[in-house]
Amino acid sequence: MDCTQEGPVSRGMNTRTPVIELRQITKSFGSFTAVHTIDLVIGEGEFFTIVGPSGSGKTTVLRMLAGLETPTSGDILLRGKRINDVPANRRPTCMVFQSLALFPHRTVGENIEFPLKIRDVSKADRKARALQLMEQLRLPADYYGKNVTKCSGGERQRVALARALAYNPDILFFDEPLSAIDYKLRKTLEKELKDIHRETGKTFIYITHSLEEAMVMSDRIGVMRQGRLVQVGTPNEIYTAPNSKFVSEFIGDVNIIPVAINGTGKLHSAELGAEFTSPPIPAGFRSGHLVVRPESIRIVERSDSAENRLSGRLYNEYALGSRIQYQVRVGEQVFIVERLRQQAFQGGIDSEVQIGWNARDSILVGD
Amino acid sequence: MAGATTSGAAGSKRWRTALLWAWVLSVVAFMYMPALSLLLASSTSSRYFIFPITRWGFDWWEKTFNSIEIHILFKTSISIALCVTVIAVVIAFFGALAFARYDWKGRSLFQKIVLLPIFFPQSVLGLALLLWFNAMGIPLSWKSTVFAHLVWIVPVVTLVISIQVYSFDPALEEAAFDLGATRWQVLREVTLPVLFPGLFSGALFAFLLSWGNFPLSLFTTGADTTLPEYLYAKMIAGYTPGVPVLGTVSTMMAAILLLGGYGLIVLRRRARLK
Amino acid sequence: MAEASAPAIATRQPRFVILRWLKLRPGAAHALPVIAFLLIGFAAPLAWVIMFSFMPERSFSLLNEPTLDNYVTIFSGTTYRSFLWSLGLAAVTVILLALICYPIAYGLTRVFGRWSTLLTLLFTIPLFVSENVRLYGWILFFIKNGVMLGTLKSLFGYEGETWLFTEGMIVLGMVYVYMPFMLFPMTLGVSMVPNETRDAAFDLGASRWQVFKEVDLPLAMPGIVIGFLLSFVLAVGALVEAKVLGGQRVIPIVHEIELAFTYAQNWPLGAALAVLLMLVVGTLVMLVLRRFDLDTILGRR
Lengths: 367, 274, 301
Description:
heterotrimer, B: 274 residues, mainly alpha, MetI-like fold, 11 helices, globular, C: 301 residues, 14 helices
């Protein structure tokens, strides 16, 4: 269970044996291609998250891994063995569904015992295992006979996970199981899920549309867009080195400035009428976007030095708990600037301000 | 001032509620007036029905139920209804899955085709089936009536079960399959139990609709006779108190089966939610 | 306790080919029994009727030279009156039903609360009793010395004439028999109007009438239209009401068809009449149903 951060170039796979491998996977529904030639290797014991907006094909990838869909072309390998044609009920994998798919006509205990019953495990053993799982997942033992439709959202999550663990799969899949849960409970369950991952040592493959959720739990993240895998990397890599405008926008509030190389070989924004010093420009770069995170931009006060500076007007401010977010208008563009609450900017709304950032805090990406 | 308007609004609301109740109760009374008339007519000892009844009695009930002819009628009608129920529920179960569970290319067309026989005049359907049986050389008996009933009842039952299937989460089947169940185990352990209330109401509908059907039976029973057919024949032939007796029995049977069936579903739900 | 372990993968499964075939088109596979059954039990007999309608008068086999004679006979004769009677009676019935049922549908979804289920059951029960038996109950009610006139006579000494065997009685019978077919779809439609939308309309200053016209009616429309269609189509095919309560004063189209088949022993003429009725009914059903997505009405999405 080695989850330490590796170097920036690493794909996070150095220390792991591959458990599941996708080779040139494509899935079409009629004329619509949901998944487009995906290559991916996931390591033993890894917590891998696929992130993407709805319709990006992430659920289709997961359903193919689970055996609920068959790829149109390409191969899925489990420990080197091709499993394209192995149906879901014969794969050592198990899925926690978005709707959780708990059996409404059964009790909590019967739900958890379902995979054991299918395998003709004796009644006593089934119950023992169910109670053990319930304890592990912090479900009170007297819930054993409770009707599953009477459980709260968080309890249902735990029952679903217990049921999947009762199957004792090598790989667990999660199809946005936390999407319908309120924020606070979701945060708790995210951490619990990571703990369970640690305790069981199983491979977890998780799907979400929230990169924030992915960051909290994952060893590695794959970002999907329109059926393609656009970036794979550790949370840190995704955060600090997004490889496209899409990925950088996906992380959350971010400032993006369209830029192009001008005659003097420097980055230039036509809209803002300004030149910027930037990180090293890759060879062949002609135009793209400069990405600066809100916490890397500051409102420049007095003698502060910033390599890039813009003048604007403070338009509005929002309290975000520990931080305060400012919107600063520069020409037509609105910049988002964040500060810790203790360092709140004292000038009022509508005051003229200077914002600035250093070249090393900005990222240059293509379109 | 504000208080006055509120109480005024509440008052008018109370009036509207009372009016709605009065309306619905009078319509219910209207719906049950024939049944009541039948009950009254069956409870007289006289040969002819004259209201108000002077000689109350259940002589005609006794006479009717001691008749062997009536026993045979009941046997025929119940055999037909039972066969129709079993076959209709099986076919309609699959039909309902195609109707509401799966997304497939021809689904929208399929839904409309299934509805078509429900909209069709049953007497004409009965005649068409008569021609068809005749052309195929199929002898008319209660068995051909089972077939005729099915043409109309399978679509109705498909619709009834579909309503349950719409609220069925397909992920339940996938989850069971994913947890190692075979297709058969998925069907037995998940699909059938979850859809049970729908199947049960479908069966109830099938039985009762077949039991009460006249227009389809009329042209397809051949030498056999169902209860509604017999009643019709007696009705045109002239008055006999046996008709109100059997009519009352039919109505009560429908009421008992329906209310009893509904009660069972409620009890089952209560037991589960404990 | 030994932990039961997930099955090791097994790649060669001979049965799997069939399963995959089913998995590719499970919807169509499940529809198969119904489609096959309706082909034999519904489409084929109707096709037979259509073919018979082109046979010469009074023939009992399909082996004759096809002819349009039966249709000529229908359009040159007086049978069209039966058509008009059927359509007219159905129209009157449907309008009365709409007026009777809307308040009930509204009450069932919003006012009657927990009593709604019981009321719905009460409206359902008569559906399962043979039509002619129920109509016979009306005869006992309206007949001279029956429940109504007998009561009037004994209480008030009033001796009235029976209302039986009039056109009004036929309409009463039809309203009575087809009530559930208007009521239930209409209730479904009214229940599709979200309470919040009505509240929002009130809150935005709409009067009760405006809420009905602008919110209730349009949103409940699918159910209402299906109710109209169902009760109208069934009423056009009505037969027993006119026979039992109307005393055969009016001959509706289905009665005409039955007479041709049985009494007149003229199958081709009966078939031609049936084809015309099928055309009217079928066109109406398809026209209306085409505009609706059944999934939204019956509860999905």
